[in-house]
Amino acid sequence: MSKKTVLLAVGSFRKNSFNQVVSDYIAEVLKEEGANVEFLDYRNVPLLEQDTEFPTPKEVISAKDQMRKADALWVVSPEYNGSYPAVVKNLLDWLSRPEKLLDYTTPTVIAGKPATVSGIAGSTGAKFVRENLSTLLGYIRMNPMPGTGVGLSVPAEAWQTGVLTLSDEQKNALKKQVKEFLEYIK
């Protein structure tokens, strides 16, 4: 198997984000398994609106270039009101858009690319965001891994301290997902 590059998109920009902790762990395991890992930098991607879509903003061009070079996308997201955060939806909307005005025949940078999802949230274990993201990824013509990825619940002490320490059980679930995803994208 050639060395694959997995692009990680974290659905929270919050300082000390629990989903960033999960993403960092996923990145560590991916690297241990021989994959290249990059984090998608999309903090400054503007809101998508057709009036400002072309010429394409430089932040969007950069995000699309990162996606183009990657073999797969892994979205790690919190759950906001039973779904994904607006920043994640905005990113995926931009990535799913044509690169040239009115060119709907050339595949987008995400067309057919393998994808998977994970998330950590409250008592739902990020169930709803994972379901919604899996559906959305298929709708925008990505190639989502079957299922809805791994969902984790934030331990009570993490809510109190603001510090997340993954349990061995949580780490094992993520390790399993890494192995399955690398097999899926080979």
TrEMBL record:
PANTHER family linked: CHROMATE REDUCTASE (PTHR30543), NAD(P)H-DEPENDENT FMN REDUCTASE LOT6 (PTHR30543:SF21)
Gene3D superfamilies noted in UniProt: 3.40.50.360
Signal peptide: none
Species: Pseudoleptotrichia goodfellowii F0264
Class of this enzyme: oxidoreductase
A single GO cellular-component term on record: cytosol
Family matches, as InterPro entries: Flavoprotein-like_sf (IPR029039), FMN_Rdtase-like_dom (IPR005025), NAD(P)H-dep_reductase (IPR050712)
Highest taxon, organism lineage: Bacteria
Enzyme Commission number(s): 1.7.-.-
Protein name (database record): Flavin reductase
Coiled coil: none
Statement: the UniProt record of this protein carries the keyword Oxidoreductase: yes
Any one Gene Ontology molecular-function term assigned to this protein's record: FMN binding
Domain called NADPH-dependent FMN reductase-like: residue spans: 6-149
Keywords, alphabetical: Oxidoreductase
